[in-house]
Design goal:
611 residues, mainly alpha, 2 domains, five-stranded mixed sheet, 9 strands, disordered N terminus
């Protein structure tokens, strides 16, 4: 009897273990497919990826490198000389990503390698989480696996890697938002309801009720701010709909308890995080990105046109050409990121619109006799379609996202990123449709296989053409920094010209924004202190502010105790005397101690006259 009870108690955990194995296998397939598609190998994994837009990529390498020096992302005195850099104030990373990269730093101090591995493993984590979202929809396993791969290998993912948006690219939290959506929609869609109902005691039922709520909301709250804001928007809408239905049907209000608890838990965890980030710790006095305006939400919102058109890197080149012609001719929202919709998801979005129109006209209340009729009445499909429509209203130009920006906060400005939520909802809808209508395997398997072939050609076929990682070993700059470390004493302060604010201050000349972080990122022994990187809006960030005259520069150099000046000549393509006038106050501008060996002799290092 005891043996039988033990086996029965172990059975659910054996099921969980089996699902974890399937999810892991799905993640590995996604990782390998991404690596092969992007041309990543052992060599390129250790090189700096410049991609199409190098600015943000350098910023993310900076975060990865800083984690190796300051594990908790506190004050980092290797940057922001003569004070420090404090990335804790800069919400350009999410806590979950920071914790993972802290784990990576236990094995290597190479910030470039840490971020590249993080990029690549993002394909694994998204597919892993995506598998659980699609299984939560209670579709057959082979359908869940294929759709999880379509989700993880979406053009959205490759494009964010190309833009250098490493933390935006790792959108595993969107899959968890899908599961939370099913939980708050009601017992019929809650994937944990059967597990809860089979509990033998009230205490066990309570434990099974709380565990998914706390686990999922905590994980989502630790993800990128865009994704937990999108989560709150989608979940609040579902609850609002449930409140109306409850009042209309005169159901008991206590049925709304757990949905409210779920959203409340998410808000609580997010609130605690934001409260901690709002502390000044004696240094910060202004909000990061406080200069964002509400009007930017329309500049960076999405369009339905690009949402349903193929991406420009699709393997169906003739279809991609149509999209490119549209992009070349449009003048609306031209600076917004592309939504990155797979063709399979775009088709599902069209089906959702048809589904909503049919439901508005469909008056039958009994269960229909046909599979298609039962799908039209399916609670999962209804919830996904409703959430999709609501998310679409925030995604689009001059939509609810603009109102949110004007009324609540302009910080979430790139509403086009809602596209990945819409993609997840659309794929979930299509997965339910196939599973519900094509019940016999002889119909379901060929259809899913056909969609998989379309996905492979569309999502992987043209990636190498559309996205070039441009890996570089930075040999010249690495040698320059290494020579500086050997020449200068430990803890020497190196003042970097131009005096450039951090973050998001924009390019100077032909020097990209964040480019001055590269000497620190590529440093061999971290023995030097670099002036770039103190956060704007903090006391530390004010030291070099408004130092525009040679006399002021000379005074600051003397006050700081700096021992060297590094000049990026790319910042002065039209007026090289601008840096010479400053350097001349403390060193001989015609006698650099080190000159980089690249063809342009881009970087110069001058030692400060000890007098």
């Amino acid at each position: 009897m005891r043996v039988t009870s033990a086996i029965a108690a172990f059975a659910p955990w054996r099921t969980v273990l089996r699902e974890i194995v399937w999810a892991t296998a799905t993640g590995l397939v996604s990782l390998v497919a991404a690596a092969v598609t992007l041309g990543i190998n052992a060599t390129t994994l250790g090189q700096r990826w410049q991609t199409n837009i190098a600015d943000d990529q350098a910023q993310h390498y900076l975060v990865a490198k800083a984690i190796t020096d300051v594990p908790l992302l506190g004050p980092n005195d290797r940057m922001g000389f003569p004070t420090f850099q404090n990335l804790f104030f800069a919400p350009n990373y999410d806590p979950a990503s920071a914790m993972f990269m802290i784990f990576e730093s236990l094995f290597t101090h190479n910030g470039v390698l840490i971020l590249n591995i993080y990029h690549l493993l993002g394909f694994f984590t998204v597919a892993f989480a995506g598998y659980f979202f699609f299984t939560a929809l209670r579709v057959r396993r082979f359908i869940a696996i294929v759709f999880a791969l379509v989700f993880a290998l979406a053009p959205y993912h490759f494009q964010r890697v190309s833009f250098g948006h490493g933390f935006v690219a790792n959108y595993w939290a969107v899959a968890l938002v899908g599961i939370l959506l099913l939980m708050v929609a009601g017992p019929k869609t809650n994937p944990f309801q059967g597990w809860i109902d089979t509990a033998e005691t009230r205490g066990m039922r309570a434990w099974r009720r709380w565990l998914p709520i706390i686990t999922l909301t905590l994980l989502v709250s630790l993800s990128l701010s865009y994704y937990f804001v999108f989560a709150a928007i989608i979940l609040a809408t579902v609850i609002a709909a449930r409140v109306v239905i409850t009042l209309v049907e005169r159901e008991k209000l206590r049925t709304l308890l757990w949905p409210f608890v779920t959203v409340a838990a998410l808000v609580l965890f997010v609130g605690v995080q934001l409260a901690i980030l709002s502390l000044d710790f004696g240094d910060r006095y202004a909000q990061y990105f406080g200069e964002r305006s509400a009007g930017e939400s329309e500049v960076h919102a999405g369009k339905i046109t690009t949402l349903v058109l193929p991406w420009v890197g699709t393997g169906f080149s003739s279809l991609g050409a149509i999209t490119q012609r549209y992009l070349d001719g449009t003048t609306v929202s031209i600076y917004a990121e592309p939504p990155g919709t797979p063709i399979v998801a775009a088709g599902a979005m069209i089906l959702i619109v048809i589904f909503i129109l049919v439901r508005l006209m469909y008056s039958r209340t009994t269960v229909p006799p046909t599979a298609l009729g039962r799908f039209i009445m399916d609670d999962r499909a209804s919830v996904l379609a409703m959430a999709f429509l609501w998310g679409l209203l925030f995604y689009t130009v001059s939509g609810l996202g603009a109102i949110f920006s004007f009324v609540v906060s302009p910080e979430i400005r790139a509403w086009v990123r809602m596209s990945i939520v819409l993609i997840a909802l659309a794929l979930g809808f299509l997965a339910v449709l196939i599973d519900r209508v094509l019940t016999p395997l002889k119909f379901a398997v060929p259809v899913v296989a056909f969609l998989a072939i379309i996905a492979v050609v569309d999502q992987l076929g043209g990636v190498r053409t559309a996205i070039d990682l441009q890996p570089t070993d930075d040999a010249d700059l690495r040698a320059f920094v290494s020579d500086a470390e050997q020449l200068l004493d430990d803890d020497c302060g190196v003042v970097q010209l131009p005096l450039h604010a951090y973050p998001a201050a924009g390019p100077v000349g032909i020097m990209s924004d964040y480019n001055q972080a590269l000497p620190y990122i590529l440093a061999t022994d971290n023995s030097l202190r670099w002036s770039y990187g103190a956060v704007v809006g903090s006391i530390s960030g004010d030291y070099w502010e408004n130092v525009t005259t040679p006399a002021a520069f000379e005074a600051k150099i003397a006050d700081s105790g700096a021992c060297a000046i590094e000049v990026d000549t790319f910042a002065y393509p039209d007026d090289p005397t601008a840096w010479r006038d400053l350097v001349e106050t403390v060193a001989d501008p015609d006698d650099p101690a080190i000159v980089s060996t690249d063809a342009d002799n881009r970087y110069l290092l001058f030692t400060v006259d000890p007098r």
